[in-house]
Amino acid sequence: MRYPASTSAAGLLPRLSGTEASSEQSAAPTTLIGIDELSRRLSLAKGTLYNWVYLRRIPFVKAGRCLRFDYDAVFQTLRQITINEAGKR
C-alpha cells in the first residue's frame, strides 16, 4: 500500500505525488450542495430527501453530521428511476 508523501496545508487532504497527482488534477472538481439547496433545486421536501438518503436511493456524502450532495449525480440517479420504482419501499 502506498502512503501519501505529505498532507495539504489544511492538514485534511493528502497531497499526492507523481502520476497520482496528475490523474487527480485532470478530473473536474465537484461542487457539493447542502440539503436545503437540493430541496430548492428539485422542489422536494427535505423530509423526502432525508428518507431517500436513509433508503440509499440517492448518492450523498456524509462528513460527521453534515449531508452533502453532488447535484448532477442526484439528478442522473433520479432520471433512471422509472414510474414503477417510484412508489416502491
What key phrases describe this protein's structure?
89 residues; two-stranded antiparallel sheet; alpha+beta; globular; 16% strand
Describe what you observe in this structure.
- This protein has 89 residues and is an alpha+beta fold.
- The protein has a single domain (6-86), classed as Arc Repressor Mutant, subunit A.
- The chain contains five helices and five strands, in the order ββαβααββαα.
- It has helices at 19-26, 35-42, 46-54, 71-80, 83-86, and strands spanning 6-7, 14-15, 32-33, 61-63, 66-70.
- Strand 4 and strand 5 form a beta hairpin.
- The chain is globular, with a radius of gyration of 17 Å.
What integer is the average pLDDT? 77
Per the CATH scheme, the topology name is Arc Repressor Mutant, subunit A
Our count of domains comes out at: 1
Query: What does the main sheet amount to?
Result: 3 strands, antiparallel
Describe the global form. Answer: globular
Query: Which CATH top level class fits?
Result: Mainly Alpha
* Number of helices, where a helix is a run of at least 4 consecutive DSSP H or I residues: 5
Helix fraction? 40-55%
- The CATH architecture assignment turns out to be Orthogonal Bundle
Could you tell me the radius of gyration in angstroms?
A: 17 Å
Distance between the termini: 40 Å
Q: Uncertain segments of ≥5 residues (pLDDT<50)?
A: 6-11, 20-24
The beta-strand count equals 5
Strand order of the main beta sheet, please? 3-5-4
Share in β-strands: 15-25%
